[in-house]
């Protein structure tokens, strides 16, 4: 419509009329531009009832129009965020973007040369503290409550080191995929979970966050429970006892005998029995006995080294509640 | 009008028209505010003619859910490959997995809901449902079952799984297992497996930005069969053991209630946990297969033995956590918990052998109670941009207040001394831990950060051979980026633990009656040899070093090296564990050949070596450990020492990759893992006594290959077909089981289980349907 009017104007033969219309045209465009700029501010701030998050994301007159460039048809799956909680706390507009990335007005003016106010990488990644503070604006209450001073925080990791928001399903929140994120750094654990005696971590039946809280706790090794044994008892409650006849190292620390990430030896034992038992037991008769290749089936076939060895008889190794169980055989 | 003015005007009008066109695009913000589908006003709408986005982006942005329906076939039974994945049996299977998330609900009750299922159709399936309203509430339902399949190569002559196990009527008894000629005619294969099913319900309510309440209920049931050793014996030298199939029937219910209060300056989180464990089976009774006479009523067919299984228990825990934020640089955190575990299961009788004379039990039950108290606090202070100081204190207290009682020591349902002097006492172990740590970190430059920490830990134990251990540790960490593409991390840690006097007689004095103790010569009043210090109680020096380096060669290639070394020296211990070394190396690399092809490889080497020593000695006069004049009793004779240096070595290799063969049509991925481990016990030495030898054990070996290949054909954005092929090969050798038949060991009637030797092929065809 407007194009046709322009043609009509150009075809006008009166010089003065042409010049007057020319000046009028310029004035119309200027007012149109300013009206759009105002309406972009109004539409952004007209969000209805503000939540605390929205209050923090209050726009200014100068902000980037993120979705003007980062469209749904771009190569990166930016718009996957609308299918997650982060994309639905606010309206589905630039406010969602600036809530995490900041107003980014410089980036809006020079998108290929200036970074967003807060960038999570891979290009122009802000420092870990800045990145994490963006998340902690909302997540301070729960996940971030113990973040400051935690082991991962001290390693200059940020939330985005593990979490991905521009995806429908954050990999680290999935039991089966979570360990691969942890194994990026925890290489020794990665090799242990493939050993022949292990928890079902590779199959996604248990995962790292079942025992550990990577966001920080005051317990050792970022355990969720107050002590290591409490962590083990959360799944192995039959070991809680108390038993009538206790086995001392069991009551103190499960990792005295077991390696929870994986072991070459059965039942996650750090050393195979009977040698494990003989590290602490050297009593008269068979506990102190030397066990060697002479105890193999083709020689003496000793009960102390073959089959379940010590546990052929002392099966109640975690403790016995039997009145005749002082030797953990009942 | 002159031509030049017209041309300038045309140019000027064009430049001014552009903002108008752009303004139309900007005005789409209003539409965008209402919904993200802006294709109607998309200035780049010509893109819609063909979608140039990668297929993975299309999946992420266009669809809310997917369903994966799969039909598969496993070529053979296995208990290694199928240990946890529900694919332990030969044959076909059908599986269903899927997930869906909806944020565009029209409901007034909830803002979103999501549902997912995994491996439904196998014995290891799970399902989850969650829905809620933002800043209001959340409700979650989670159900999971999985099965751990253990060795299924064993056989048992027992029937009557459950509380009481009996032998067949035609059972042939004997004094040794080799005389039990009817074993193979009466035995049947049994599977060791444990099935765990979990139901978890959670509810979270946010009353306002400050207050929230959370609750959960979890029900877990564990059923299956495991093996358990049980023996008749009258003394330490005549054990007659049998490996039994033992029923597992556990139920655990856990309730968790909590609140959280959050303000800008402080927050407080409290919760209460109650957990009840119930064992549906209180005991395991079995018929003695041996004909050996160990006492009245101890031989086949009338002799039965009984052992107690895990007692029911209750667990209560109160926990309070909080933070006080003084300002941006100073923060105090705390965590306190108080827990009580109790059990009051009625005692089984001393023995089910009615021909053994026994007295009264001292009580009907233990009525045992353990209280655990923990308190932790941490002060975090950021002195300035470069310096941070943290101080942590931790206190733990385990108090077992179960009563100490004397019990008549019935030996293996065979014999019981009648005199009171032979009674034994239960021992309740308690301890407390004080741990204090101070850490300072200093940012040397933007690229270098140094941390130094000092910690002191004191543990006091009750009813242990060592009353107090004190340990000091020093830790040094350096994180740096010496080059733009290189990040390194070095950690050094040294710990020095000192133990108080090792009371080698403590175990003896706490177990036996004072009359018996007085009748025992001084030099025999010990359970474990006086020269043995249990390593977790004894003096120790520990050195630990960690190194990690990551280098980014280019946008396409990065590599990482990770090294770990730890050495423990129990320098005061002469017998028992005297030292160990653990080392680990991982080299890994990731290569992004192109946007369509990426690969990663890792190689890990792990080595764990330890040194331990023992002294072989018998009882009676040979038990004197303090003689210095010849002839030396065995316990005093260093020629009766033996040494062992077990080594556990493993290598693992992983190779994964992704290849987009035809964009948006065909892609492939692979995952290959190889693990090889050996447990080596070939370095035996003895002190020279004639009956000691240096015969090595064979290595215990396991070797595992697992290859998984996936090929996905995308018929459309919505529909894909996936073909999965897996090859699994496991070979194990374990001298403790291989070549050990059920009757190989004289006094152990076993199950004859063997190491795994699996070669498995798996093929799965999946149909994946994606939807909005």
Q: Main β-sheet of chain B, in a few words? A: 26 strands, antiparallel, barrel
Structural class, from secondary structure content of chain A? mainly alpha
The value of Rg of chain B in angstroms is: 34 Å
Kindly state the number of beta strands of chain A: 0
Share of β-strand residues of chain B = over 45%
Mean pLDDT of chain A: 83
The pLDDT mean of chain B sits at: 91
Indicate the percent of residues in helices of chain A: 25-40%
Question: What separation lies between the terminal Cα atoms of chain B?
Answer: 61 Å
What structural class do the secondary elements of chain B suggest?
A: mainly beta
Q: In percent, how much strand structure appears in the residues of chain A?
A: under 5%
Give the CA-based shape of chain B.
Answer: globular
Supply the number of helical segments of chain B. Answer: 6
Q: What is the oligomeric state here?
A: heterodimer
Separation of the first and last Cα atoms of chain A: 96 Å
Total helical segments of chain A: 13
Radius of gyration of chain A: 33 Å
Largest interface, by Cβ-Cβ below 8 angstroms: which chains and how many residues each?
Answer: A-B, 146 and 212 residues
Task: Please trace the helix and strand order of chain A, writing H or E for each element.
Answer: HHHHHHHHHHHHH
What are the key terms here?
heterodimer; A: 330 residues; mainly alpha; 13 helices; elongated; disordered N terminus; B: 772 residues; mainly beta; 26-stranded antiparallel barrel; 53% strand; globular
Describe this structure in words.
The complex is a heterodimer of chains A (330) and B (772). Chain A is built from 13 helices and no strands. By secondary structure, chain A is mainly alpha-helical. The longest helix of chain A is centred in the N-terminal third of the chain and has 31 residues, at 15-45. Mean pLDDT of chain A is 83; it is low at 1-7 and 29-61. In chain B, the strands form four sheets. Chain B has a 26-stranded antiparallel beta barrel. Chain B has a three-stranded mixed sheet with strand order 7-13-14, with no helix packed on it. Classes of the chains: A mainly alpha (330), B mainly beta (772). At the A-B interface, helix 1, helix 2, helix 10 and helix 12 of A face helix 1, helix 2, helix 3, strand 5 and strand 10 of B.
